[in-house]
Amino acid sequence: MVKTLIKKLDFGWRLLATAISFTCFGIGGVLLWLLVFPLLAIWPGNRTEKACRAQYTVHLSFYVFIGLMHRLGVMTYEVIGLEKLNRPGQLIVANHPTLVDVVFLLSRIKQANCIVKASLWHNPAMRGPILNAGYISNADSETMINYCATWLQNGGAMLIFPEGTRSVPGQPYRFQRGAAAIALQAGSIITPVTLTCMPSTLTKTQAWYQIPRRRFHLRMIVGDDVELQTFRELQPRSIAVRRLTQYLQDYFTQQRERHERDGN
């Protein structure tokens, strides 16, 4: 009886805490758009410098948000290999198991560009960060690839989810070719980051209020850089892109199978 009551109270608190967290996220995004980013925009500097300042601001705000969720008891987290990130010209490729993984990644990467869905440009909570940080729309694939490659060649970092959307639990990965095309065109460092979320929550088919029975644990493992030379030697480029995409898909599939086998 007492255990049942404690579980219900815990569930109720986490539901309330989740609502508080996402409310703060929305309000914070609007405040950044209206108050912070306008100040950053008038600060001297060229377009790239202003975008980098805005990206660092997003990093700090997401760091605070993740800290809030952790302190409220919504989530716990673990990071392995963080020292492999935050390098110039680095393309970070990650799987996408939950809604908050992009926030978590950017909270650990001090400065990075990323690709966002065109629909998010109309989201009040996201519009400010997207516009000011120079994030790249996926509306036109050719323009997207060229812009990303140029950003990497100029020493910027990029974060890409090759699936293009959140993973569907129990379904095989289906990677798009954009990440591979960008990496090969830019000749950049490409670093895989494996994310796991247990219990599964905030997937593509779950609403924010469909919380798990206990706090979810987000685990981030930064892998070793992918050796691109073998793929760059392949001709034509379309074959190289296809082979690299398959390599990345196989890598993340193996990582997921290892996680499921080990039960971690």
TrEMBL record:
<comment type="pathway">
    <text>Lipid metabolism.</text>
</comment>
<feature type="domain" description="Phospholipid/glycerol acyltransferase">
    <location>
        <begin position="90"/>
        <end position="198"/>
    </location>
</feature>
<dbReference type="GO" id="GO:0016746">
    <property type="term" value="F:acyltransferase activity"/>
</dbReference>
<dbReference type="Pfam" id="PF01553">
    <property type="entry name" value="Acyltransferase"/>
</dbReference>
<keyword id="KW-0812">Transmembrane</keyword>
<keyword id="KW-0012">Acyltransferase</keyword>
<feature type="transmembrane region" description="Helical">
    <location>
        <begin position="60"/>
        <end position="80"/>
    </location>
</feature>
<feature type="transmembrane region" description="Helical">
    <location>
        <begin position="12"/>
        <end position="40"/>
    </location>
</feature>
<keyword id="KW-0472">Membrane</keyword>
<protein>
    <submittedName>
        <fullName>1-acyl-sn-glycerol-3-phosphate acyltransferase</fullName>
    </submittedName>
</protein>
<keyword id="KW-0808">Transferase</keyword>
<dbReference type="InterPro" id="IPR002123">
    <property type="entry name" value="Plipid/glycerol_acylTrfase"/>
</dbReference>
<keyword id="KW-1133">Transmembrane helix</keyword>
